[in-house]
């Protein structure tokens, strides 16, 4: 079985729709060219990603895990929707490194940096850029750690939804999403009242996220097919 692992429901949604996945006890199941697949949502952050991946591998006979979803670009010139297929994934908390199985949808390039901390400081981003980091996320290294420990091949197919250094995302924006990856509508309503001028920025972020989730899902499906 192939497992698509996403942090948030919005990242899984395009896969559910395109593959017509059906709700199951652990996630959403279906087939690609007679190959069984499952899509699961882990929630945001390394702890939730690690726990959900352990539960997945303990419960299902998975022979390939593909992390699918959005990512924040280090370079402010990176086009929204660009696929990110890293050569290396690093856990920013301890420096541990993981190498994904390549996928046949593009050339692998650069390093993905997994961190539970929102990184927006220009000096920090410049240092990461100098070290070959091209994108940031909050789950991939945790998924990789579990998969490597179990001997299960894993890959990453993400797409750029925003740029870490352009001011689109800040701590308040991150708080508009629950830890389980679902939208926090009360928090969003309060945010709009306090920051009415931020509506265009949020709309831009929403469009970027939608484009990125669809690009990542389409590429992940091609990788399997």
Automatic annotation (TrEMBL):
Q: Which part of the chain is the Nucleoside phosphorylase domain? A: 2-95, 108-191
The record's Gene Ontology cellular component field reads:
cytosol
Taxonomically, the superkingdom here is Bacteria
**Gene Ontology process terms (BP):** L-methionine salvage from S-adenosylmethionine; nucleoside metabolic process
GO MF annotation, one: methylthioadenosine nucleosidase activity
Q: What is this protein called?
A: Nucleoside phosphorylase [Thioflavicoccus mobilis 8321]
Organism source for this protein?
Mycobacterium shimoidei
């Amino acid at each position: 079985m192939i497992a698509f692992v996403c942090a948030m429901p919005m990242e899984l949604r395009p896969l559910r729709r395109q593959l017509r996945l059906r709700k199951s006890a652990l996630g959403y199941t279906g087939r690609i060219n007679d190959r069984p697949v499952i899509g699961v949502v882990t929630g945001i952050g390394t702890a939730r990603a690690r726990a959900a991946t352990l539960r997945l591998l303990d419960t299902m006979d998975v022979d390939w895990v593909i992390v699918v979803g959005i990512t924040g670009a280090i370079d402010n010139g990176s086009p929204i929707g660009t696929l990110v297929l890293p050569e290396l994934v690093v856990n920013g908390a301890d420096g541990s490194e993981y190498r994904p199985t390549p996928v046949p949808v593009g050339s692998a390039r650069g390093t993905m940096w997994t961190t539970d901390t929102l990184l927006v400081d220009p000096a920090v981003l410049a240092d990461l850029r100098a070290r070959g980091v091209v994108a940031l996320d909050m789950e991939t290294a945790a998924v990789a750690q579990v998969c490597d420990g179990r001997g299960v091949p894993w890959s990453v197919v993400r797409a750029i939804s925003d740029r870490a250094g352009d001011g689109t995302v800040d701590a308040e924006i991150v708080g508009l999403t629950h830890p389980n990856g679902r939208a926090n509508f009360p928090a969003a309503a309060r945010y709009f009242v306090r920051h009415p001028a931020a509506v265009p920025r949020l709309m831009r972020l929403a469009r970027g996220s939608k484009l990125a989730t669809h690009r990542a899902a389409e590429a992940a499906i091609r990788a399997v097919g």
